[in-house]
Amino acid sequence: MFQGIGTLNNPETGEPILTHIEMNADAKPVIQPPRPVPHHLEERTKKKLDYFVQEGIMTWTKPGKLISYASPLVFTPKGDDVRITEDFRVANKGASRTRLVPGLRVDDEDYEKYLVVTTPWRNLKHETLAKGWITSQDEFDRRINEILAGIPYVKSNRDDCLIGGKDQNEHNRTLDLVLTRLQDHGLTLRLEKCEFGKEEVEFYGVRFTGEGITPSKAKVKALQECGELSSKEGVRSFLQMVGYMSRFITSFAQIAALLRELTKSTLTFQWGPIEQEAFDSLKSSLTIWFDGANNPFLLCS
Asked: Which parts of the sequence belong to the Reverse transcriptase domain (predicted)?
């Protein structure tokens, strides 16, 4: 399960789970020209597109094939490789998010219409739901939550999954169950992206250890190095950053309220001693907070 690109399957039948794309009634077809590929990336780009075709992710369209939707690809160098992403921003404006059907593989009629992309060589059509499509992340999130439902000590967010346990044996049993569930559903993992047997790990800005949770060192450092604020936009940005770690800050809501007043459109931005004190307090008030089942804790808001 650590090789190739997976396809979401029904574990009982082994058949791919299909998904459906819906467009709004007023959606208008749009065909965009291909983005140019830098000369030094041409060989790598063509090789990667051929790999996508080989893996069944895409297929080349037939010459002269009439299309009603086509979106450009974006090519970005990534070390010795090239990162290829779809720019569906224009087509996504006509897409509907009201009906979500879990799955990754798209039926013929849908991908012919909406998931065609342009390249300098030929057009390509997606065999699977493209990651840049407006409903693709919604569908993936919903499906992965269904797959991992009922497994204790597992937290998934987007394509990241955190697995824990009270001890090593319990952790290993949970890990085995997660890998089995993913494999049964036809999903694969990139081994170089996985970490096993860690005594501590950072997950979306939070550091998990055997003793409890704390804000990540990187988040704390970024907060403490934040410079002086001189505009409403700067205050909003600061509050968003510190708000992510509000669970670790005593009386966060009361302190932040003093700065939030500055962001109101009806008020003129004016920085004074009170605002400076609140700013300094938030920067320096991060404390280690452990979430232990046997430890008392105080909920502050």
From this structure: 159-207
